[in-house]
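Researcher: Next sequence.
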Amino acid sequence: MHSRMFRTIVLAASIGLTSWLSAAPAEPPSVGDLREEQRIILNAYLIRGEQFVGKSKEQLADNILRASKENGFYAVELLARARAKLDQHPSRIEQARGFFGRAFESSREELRKNLRENIDPRYFALQARLESIAAQLAAKGDTSLQQALDAAKNGDTQKVEQLMRGQNIRPKGDPDGDTAPAPTSSSALTTGTNTGATIPGIAGSSVMQSGGQVSINIPGRNPFNIPGTLSADGRYIDSPQYGKIDLHSGKQLADGSTAFQTDKGVLVVGPDGSINFIPGATLNADGTATTANGSKIALDGLRRDASGALVTKDGLSINPSTGAASNPATAFSGALPNGIMVVDENGNPITVDPDWENGEQKGVKREYLGGKGARLTVEAKVVRKIVQATGANWTVRVSPGETRSWNLSISTGETRVVGSSAQLTLTLIDAGGQTDFVVKSWDVANASGAKAEVSPSTTNPVEATATFTQDGEYTFTVTGETGWGSPFRITGKGGVYR
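Model: Next structure:
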């Protein structure tokens, strides 16, 4: 009897304990649990969804509608799974526990910040991109992706899967964040699940091995792949084409490009995912690069010209073999384009001749007293070479050659009386003995404007005879040009009295 009573008491106690356990509230999540949940939302759902969307967009542009829709559905499925977890995630953060009770506020704030600054923006960006693709497919008569997207926004994964099966698209299935590969061909783009690496200089970035490529995801831009193998410590990508890529050197550029230093040069991935490589270059702290020939170039705004050559936003061409930068304008031939300002290497505006040959011209530098074209004092032969051309500002290096000085003046002879007139011989001379010049014209006039008649000599090209009908003070003016093409104007004064 005592034995039966003991069994009855034990049974009752067991039933009571079971009832108490089943009624106990669920244990709050740990900070570690929530970090893992955020990793799944970000890497397994959103980042992979972005890759499916990228492929879907490409296929839609190529009018490959079936494949575009299929990849769009895979992205919608991942969006739905992300939404389902995100609906409860904020409240779970507030419930987070630590080792000795409720988690520290700093731990919860870290989780809130990652949700606010990284996960939520990527979720809504992915949703917006899917809305665009779905609208384009609907315009072509297929609204199935729009229907699935409406369900995904509510976190209704079952409805999304049902709609996928109705389109003969097999859902990937992803209850624990361990997804099937993303698409690699017209219907699939392979990504791996090896996560954890980041680019320290770019907040929110993630890096993962993806078969023979490394997938890089940066907030605010499309994911991109670089051929190669991610090192065990997540710092380098060993690329057979670009060398050892240092992820810790990664810099986000103004145009959305991303630049990396490699042991072979600088790698720049454009906003559209295009990869440009500059061999022998060094990445600078300010996001520029120094090329193999010492030129400092901008890395944002890189483009390909009609021939396929890599060109910087400043118009410099990059040699694909050596990485040297050069400016096509430095080999410019023809008349200087309108609107170009030419300066010397100190930035001072200079006057140049209009025509160039292979980026060079031979000219004469002139010095005058009284303004250009007045009293010539110095001529110097120069070679001008275009060394830089950025937009409307061209820099020219001026290399001086032969130089000569001038001291021109008008010599007057003795006054001669011829009938009722007076005559005077005028001669243009150089005090230094230079003779390489010609006279173009003579002019002799008094203060009231009365002019003397001037007759050039038939035997001496730099001489003339002036005939006066009035006595008084006169101004003598002669214009001419040197053998180097320098114009000049020389004046003198003198009195004529009979």
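Model: Residues 213 and 255 are 24 Å apart (CA to CA). The radius of gyration is 42 Å.
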